[in-house]
Write a structure and sequence with these properties.
It contains 19 helices and 20 strands. With 550 residues, it is α/β, with parallel strands linked by helices. The chain has two domains: 217 residues, Aminopeptidase (3-Layer(aba) Sandwich); 318 residues, Rossmann fold (3-Layer(aba) Sandwich). The strands form four sheets. It has an eight-stranded mixed β-sheet with strand order 1-2-3-4-5-6-10-7, sandwiched between helices. An eight-stranded mixed β-sheet has the order 12-13-15-14-16-17-19-20, sandwiched between helices. A two-stranded antiparallel sheet has the order 8-9. Strand 12 and strand 13 form a beta hairpin. Helix 9 crosses helix 10 and helix 12 packs across helix 14. The chain is elongated and about 80 Å long.
């Protein structure tokens, strides 16, 4: 098992060929043979590292490159340099999927798990097919080493699919990248058809002193390596509603309702795909679940002003009014982390409309529970830029117990029986090796959406959480007005994001009907023990619904 602290790129490159195949490709019987759709001939597929490739196979691969790409290189700024190309083709971590017929090389794709501009990626260096494997087409494409052609046989698409599968199974890998000569329009169309588009790091045109614009010879393209990591759950209603008029706005907050049931659940923060699957889809006839992106994150606007949990609670209240969720004892509010702070504020604003108040991994106020030096270091580290892999590793340790991170992936996935879900073309959402790998892939998908996840919004939300403060008197008022039997406080002993001290203190000050300190659990209960967490929420919802009927 791969430790969550081990760099996934280094780990992938350290594997021998057999282990790489076992871990990152389909079962051998699924991929090691291919039948030509026009001739019916069988071809063998194998994977080898560059350093393990026999010299005659390497020479055959080089001749394919030379035959199909030398002219493109000669017309480019860098020129055709056979010795440099051969050296590049023998890079230490480069791997080849070879296509053979009766022992002779007929095509290949070369790839490398690596970092590009600090992003973990699988880079496609070369993909070349002999004329016979291109069907009726006899041109070729290019990649980092530059090459392949649109193929009516489908083999080119299949080989690129294998790269995407490899990328999907290496946690933290965000995308497949390649380089294509711009003059090769057939190649560009081929990649675009597969879903590749211009990468943000593709070179821009140069403007010379005399004003002449010089276009680069090539373009860098990319494709998500796991477009189906985040589940596509279709909402019943959705919109962007203008809030905060007269409070620094207006600006739009994005919201969705999942499910059509009479029981109203309000989820504040947390992981959207997980929090709505059970209640908003599998039990959507019973529950209606409101989820939203708080100001500064996701599809909501990101105004540059001081955020506070009280103001975000007012944003939420305006959306509830917009939806008409205004009845007495109608709302079951589940607040996680900063969302729990917003939920406290909402409870003070509309206590008589709260049927149950569930405060998960949260605090009345963030207090320093470490030494002065450690606290100072932690605060500074929040705002120091880090590589993505290091950042994911650090955050995972704050959110989850290490034992859970290392366990095999145990996520409950949507399936064909789940209402209002869009499944991937394969018909099933992919499994990962470990819980860490699934979380890292989902988190990376979120972070790489530069519109939805912006550092500015993150920092403004972090400041809001840091300034949140509810006094003993305010918590007493909250308990008195909402009703203590309607309140749950839940915290884990391994939570390093908001330490267990805060959960214990909140229970002591609020005296809720249910106060649980769970041994060995971290910050995100709905992921660490989904079944137990869902059952607890169902019990609390039923209990408080029954209380409201008395």
């Amino acid at each position: 098992m791969v430790s969550s602290t081990q760099d996934p790129i280094d780990d992938a490159n350290s594997k021998d060929d057999e282990q790489f195949i076992e871990d990152f490709l389909p079962s051998r019987e699924q991929w090691s043979s291919w039948k030509h759709p026009l001739t019916g001939l069988r071809y063998d597929l194998t994977l080898l590292r560059a350093k393990a490739m026999p010299e005659n196979d390497f020479d055959a691969c080089f001749k394919l490159v030379e035959h199909s790409s030398a002219e493109d290189y000669k017309k480019s700024e860098q020129g055709w340099k056979p010795r440099a190309k051969r050296k590049e083709m023998k890079l230490l971590d480069l791997k080849y999927i070879l296509v053979k017929r009766e022992g002779q090389i007929e095509g290949f794709v070369s790839l490398m798990p690596t970092y590009e501009d600090d992003y973990p990626v699988v880079y496609c260096y070369e993909i070349h097919l002999s004329t016979d494997l291109q069907g009726q087409v006899d041109s070729s494409l290019t990649s980092h080493g530059y090459e392949l052609m649109t193929s009516r046989t489908g083999l080119g698409s299949l080989l690129m699919q294998y790269l995407e599968i490899i990328g999907s199974k290496i946690s933290t890998v965000s995308k497949i990248m390649l380089t294509c000569f711009k003059r090769n329009q057939k190649a560009m169309r081929f990649y675009q058809k597969l879903g590749y588009s211009r990468d943000e790091f593709s070179p821009a045109p140069k403007i010379l002193r005399n004003g002449t614009i010089v276009e680069p010879d090539y373009e860098i393209l990319d494709h998500e390596s796991y477009p189906y990591t985040v589940w596509k759950l279709v909402p019943t209603q959705e919109g962007r509603f203008p809030v905060a008029k007269g409070r620094g706005g207006p600006f739009n907050v994005s919201w969705e309702v999942h499910g059509e049931g009479d029981i109203k659940l309000v989820w504040v923060m947390g992981l959207g795909a997980i929090k709505t699957l059970k209640f908003g889809h599998e039990m959507g006839d019973k529950y209606s679940c409101l989820v939203l992106d708080n100001r500064g994150m996701g599809e909501s606007d990101k105004p540059l002003l001081r955020y506070s949990t009280s103001e975000m609670a007012k944003d939420l209240l305006e959306i509830l009014e917009h939806l008409g969720w205004t009845s007495k004892r109608q709302l079951h509010v589940i607040g996680v982390s900063m969302g729990g702070m917003i939920a406290q504020e909402l409870g003070l604003l509309i206590p008589d409309r709260i049927c149950s108040l569930n405060l998960i991994s949260t605090a009345a106020a963030i207090e320093n529970t470490t030494t002065f030096i450690e606290n100072l270091r932690n605060r500074i580290n929040m705002f120091i830029p880090k590589s993505l892999d290091r950042s994911l590793e650090d955050v995972s340790k704050s959110l989850f117990a290490q034992a859970w991170l290392d366990k095999p992936d145990d996520a409950e996935l949507p399936n064909s029986n789940t209402p209002k879900v869009i499944l991937p073309p394969s018909g099933a959402y992919p499994a990962f090796k470990t819980n860490y790998e699934r979380w890292a892939a989902q988190e990376l998908t979120k972070r790489l959406d530069s519109e939805a996840y912006q550092r500015k919004g993150f920092m403004l939300q972090a400041i809001a959480a840091g300034w949140h403060h509810k006094s003993a008197a305010q918590l007493k008022e909250l308990g008195d007005k909402v009703g203590r039997e309607r309140i749950v406080v839940l915290h884990g002993t391994e939570d390093r994001m908001i330490t267990v001290y805060h959960g214990k203190k909140l229970i002591e000050m609020l005296n809720p009907g249910v106060g649980i300190i769970r041994e060995g659990f971290g910050h995100v209960f709905m992921m660490e023990d989904t079944k137990w967490y869902n059952e607890l929420m169902e019990q609390q919802i039923k209990k408080t619904e029954d209380m409201s009927k008395e």
